[in-house]
Amino acid sequence: MIMSTDLADVAVAKTKLCFIDGDEGLLEYRGHEVGKLAKNHVFEEVVHLLLIGHLPSVEELFSFKNKMASYRSLPEPVKEIINTIPTDVDMLSVLRTAISTLGEFSFPPTVEQSLSICTKIPSIIAYRYNRVCKRKPVEPSNHLGHTANYLYMIKGTQPELEQVQALEAYLISTLEHGMNPSTFAARVITSTRADIVSSVSAAISALKGPLHGGALSQISMNLQEIGSKENTERWLREKIEAGKRIMGFGHRVYKYRDPRVLPLKNIAIKLSGNDSKLDLATHVEEMTLQLLKEYKPNKQFITNVEFYAAALLNAVGFDNNLLTATFAVSRSVGWCAHSIEAANGPLIYPQSVYSGPRIGL
Ligand code: ACO
């Protein structure tokens, strides 16, 4: 038996969805480089690529966009359940509960089921966000694309093009990433032949953790706590010496560079204008990499996608309550694509090595 407690060097699935080369820093969805997809395509086109298998023609895109828009409205029971959840419960827990309220979908997972779930996630987040902020709920607009509609439901006003484009680049860049923990969780659930709602709710639970999607809101809070360039080194040394992990740094797969970082950093800088928060973020990045090298010389550290994603989402106008939830808006497409792909696969059931006491020994 091969023993691996973190599965770092274990391949658990064959997939046609995503190619990653951690040494070269390459990421492709179905043979398309992610940077180019984020620059040249809209969210719905990349969803079509992932779920249907190819980039859509103009006609296909038109009907696919309409189909996606038609699924956005929340059923009343979902709203009622959200209304009963205390306002201090975090957004990911609310999202998980609301998704479960959609009920059991038939097995195997389908594209239609995936679209129904992925388009309702922004609606759930916006409904909850407006409720907690004591604002009127904003019904989805069928005239707007997926990204613009999400912004519209959160802000309650027609979104600016620059913000839509920035958010769209983020969503496309983080839509899929191989066997990351949340996608793996989704595939494990699908392997038991449970329905896709169960897979997605498990994936949301995995995304919530601070070593995965939960890092996003922590990064933003860290930057607020650091507050100034002068305070950066002291703050970082204290955390590292206390054995704490610095969120937004390190990656299980990428060894030298995460290909999503630089494009998102450039967008965040452009969107932020002269905002000093971005200046602080770049200083914190440089100082963190320098100090991690000093304290842990045997490990190679990189900035991961989350670091500037947090800055980008803040610059779009999203507060900390929306950051990890917005990651779910994009990654839910990957979860669903993997659930469809894994539906005929084997039951995932690894072994464990018992290390406790035995009867009579
Ligand atoms: N800050 C400080 N120390 C770190 C960090 C970090 N960000 N990341 C790893 N380390 C240290 C660990 O404490 C450990 O130290 P030790 O050997 O002295 O105990 C060592 O590096 C190895 O840690 P692993 O968890 O085995 O390293 P791995 O490369 O597998 O970890 C991970 C990847 C989990 C992302 C890690 O770098 C981390 O926790 N980063 C911070 C959280 C984060 O940013 N998560 C988002 C990841 S991207 C995404 O999910 C989309």
UniProtKB/TrEMBL annotation:
Catalytic activity: oxaloacetate + acetyl-CoA + H2O = citrate + CoA + H(+)
InterPro entries in the record: Citrate_synth-like_lrg_a-sub, Citrate_synth-like_sm_a-sub, Citrate_synthase, Citrate_synthase_AS, Citrate_synthase_bac-typ, Citrate_synthase_sf
PANTHER family: CITRATE SYNTHASE (PTHR11739), CITRATE SYNTHASE, PEROXISOMAL (PTHR11739:SF4)
Keyword Acyltransferase recorded: no
Sequence similarity: Belongs to the citrate synthase family.
Annotated Gene3D superfamilies: Citrate Synthase, domain 1 (1.10.580.10), Cytochrome P450-Terp, domain 2 (1.10.230.10)
Keywords for this protein: Transferase
Species, as recorded: Virgibacillus dokdonensis
Pathway(s) per entry: Carbohydrate metabolism; tricarboxylic acid cycle
UniProt protein name: Citrate synthase
Pfam families per the UniProt record, alphabetical: Citrate_synt
